[in-house]
Amino acid sequence: MQYILETKHLSKRFKRQQAVEDVSLKIPAGRVYGLLGPNGAGKTTTLKMITGLLRPSGGEILIGGKPWERKQLERIGALIESPALYGNLTARENLTVHTKLLGQPARRIDEVLHTVDLQETGSKKASQFSLGMKQRLGIAIALLNRPELLILDEPTNGLDPLGIQELRELIRSFPAQGITVILSSHILSEVELIADYIGIISGGRLGYESIIHDGEDLETLFMQVVARNREQAGVHHA
To answer: Which of 50, 94, 110, 147 has the CA that lies 20 to 30 A from 236?
Structure first.
């Protein structure tokens, strides 16, 4: 199997706190990978290391089989935490700023607006957008550089059921466009509906990684992995 991204024994320490410990992920190309874990499990920290926002304390990151380098970020689009939008600008104007920063042609604006279904927002300012529209605009910005890998950190957080459904359909459409997606979430039911693969992280450790099997009881699996990780952490600290 071809992996677009691998981490090997990845770790991150903040002073006295070990936020991520010995995480070895394998992200298959052309799939939606759900990184599941309770709040504070180390999901965002892991994604920030992959996108270069944090420097790992140990381990390595491979992109397309090659060691991580800053220039490889051109292959990655990311929406981590909330999207950085200019509230006084329209969707098109926000995207214009980013195309100039990224050196992308202006035609990409219409392409990504169409992809995220925001082409009809006209002169409406981003500050007047619903939370779901803001998330979709954030994804549009992340798509501008035609990434092979799209990283979305808790993208459905705070959305209403309709916003969640729209975002779910959008994310499911990406593999057919040649985009691999890593999606972090603490909502099991959401990941079950979107992802092909899952990794379960808790207490900074990856406790499970596999394809999602039909009829699998994800909740029981999740609770077992979290309990096992807590037990192991207790042994390590004893």
So the answer is: 50
The per-residue pLDDT for range 104-127, each reduced to its tens digit, is 999 999 999 999 989 888 899 999
Q: Is 179 helix (H, G, I), strand (E, B) or coil?
A: coil
The model's pLDDT over 186-201, given as tens digits with 9 standing for 90+, comes to: 888 888 889 999 999 9
Confidence class of residue 161 from pLDDT cuts 50, 70 and 90? confident
Question: Whole-angstrom Cα distance, residue 126 to residue 22?
Answer: 40
pLDDT of amino acid 22: 92
**From CA 124, how far away is CA 170, in angstroms rounded?**
22
Residue 48 near residue 80 (C-beta atoms within 8 A): yes
Instruction: Determine the Cα–Cα distance for residues 148 and 177; give it in Å rounded to an integer.
Output: 9
DSSP β-ladder status, 32-36 and 180-185: parallel
Pairing state of beta strands 26-28 and 17-23? unpaired
Look up residue 70 and give its two tokens.
Answer: 């800053």
Question: Which fold is adopted by the domain 3-85+149-236?
Answer: Rossmann fold (3.40.50)
CA dist., res. 235 & res. 33, Å (int): 30
3-state secondary structure of 120: coil
DSSP assignment string, 35-91: EE--TTSSHHHHHHHHTTSS--SEEEEEETTEE--GGGGGGEEEE-SS----TTSBH
Task: Count how many residues are written for the chain.
Answer: 238
